[in-house]
Amino acid sequence: MTALAMYAENAAPTSEEVVTQYAPLVKRIAYHLMSRLPPSVQADDLIQAGMIGLLEATRNYDASQGASFETYAGIRIRGAMLDEIRKGDWAPRSLHRRCAR
């Protein structure tokens, strides 16, 4: 078997294939977060931030760490969404904690 044929069999999926496969995961996480956020936060903004998190997850995933890609990507997607929300918020997190109490 040639080296090219071996690479073709073991090649990692492209970013386009990963986005297509895991887009429902991004939407599921976005709508789950929407239930806990004020109505001013739009689902499309969360989905966009989640897609960026998904692309970062494909770039940084290391299978030797033992976690499945879906688990790793879910954490990165949710984190990207929360980072985007925090970036647009003028209030510090401590104020939000005090208001919640």
Descriptors for this entry?
single chain; 101 residues; mainly alpha; 5 helices
Look at the helices and sheets and give the structural class: mainly alpha
DSSP E strands, number: 0
Strand content range = under 5%
Overall mean confidence score, pLDDT: 85
Fraction in helix: over 70%
Give the ordered list of helices and strands. Answer: HHHHH
Radius of gyration equals: 17 Å
Low-confidence stretches: 1-8
Largest sheet: none
The N- to C-terminal Cα distance equals 65 Å
Number of helices: 5
What would the principal axes of the Cα set say about the shape?
A: elongated
Can you offer a commentary on this structure?
With 101 residues, the chain is an all-alpha fold. Helices cover 72% and strands 0% of the residues. It is built from five helices and no strands. Helix 2 crosses helix 3. The radius of gyration is 17 Å and the shape is elongated. The N terminus is likely disordered.
Summarize, please:
The chain is mostly helical and 101 residues long.
List the helices and strands and how they pair.
Elements: H1 3-10, H2 15-34, H3 43-60, H4 69-87, H5 93-100
